[in-house]
Model the fold of this input.
Amino acid sequence: MITLADFLGESFDRQVRLLYEHGSCVMSIRYYGYKVNLYLLGNYYLEVFYNHKKDMIEKIVPLDVHHSRFNFYTDQIRLPAAL
Done:
């Protein structure tokens, strides 16, 4: 499986393809103007920010456990402690 560093080094289009072909969507949240899908790819989590108004994915970032957005996930599911 691809490492996080290799994933981040891929083009945006390739990242999207890898997520949809090899990732698992764990859950979705609403965050400001975005639908944020949390994906598990290999042994790391990624957030996919989808803008409904533009009908496009705007960014894909590794899950930041120190960001306040992390609480939206932990309120609904149990994530491994070793993140």
Observations:
- The beta strands are 24-31, 34-41, 44-51, 56-62.
- The longest strand covers residues 24-31.
